[in-house]
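Minutes, methods subgroup
Present: GH (chair), OT, SY

1. OT presented the first of two proteins processed in the latest run. Sequence and structure tokens recorded below as shown on screen.
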Amino acid sequence: MLPVVKGVSRQVIVVKEPDPRFFEQAIFILKEDAFGQGVTAEQVLQEARRVADGYVRKNTGPGRLRRRIPGPVYAAAGALGATACWCAAILCQGGLLL
């Protein structure tokens, strides 16, 4: 006897081309009570588009590099900049830099 596969019916939203460079489509599986909270289908679709666009923006582009730089690197760069300003101020006061 063949095993019986029981299926579950779920509602999904498919957002076509959230960013055509990377994705063909994004698929969102809705909660069972998504429309029971007084939310319209248009609002759910807008939220799905917003989330898909936000994901693409968050994980691509120049902002991604900034998130990959660890905090101590920023601290070291700030300390180096402050030291350079302090040295320049000391040298200017002594008349060494004009």
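2. SY then presented the second protein from the same run.
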Amino acid sequence: MSIFEITSCLRKIYAIEPAHKLKIDQNKLQNCRSNILNLVNVL
């Protein structure tokens, strides 16, 4: 996972978006969080 992917994930996670949009993206956001946490654990 590249730093660019991580950055875009973080933007999605912390961006303030309409609730309906967040519901659609919930799984993607969860995957992003998991990937970032895994990366942090590796470091």
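Chair's summary of item 2: The helical segments are 3-14, 19-42.
Next meeting: continue with the remaining queue.
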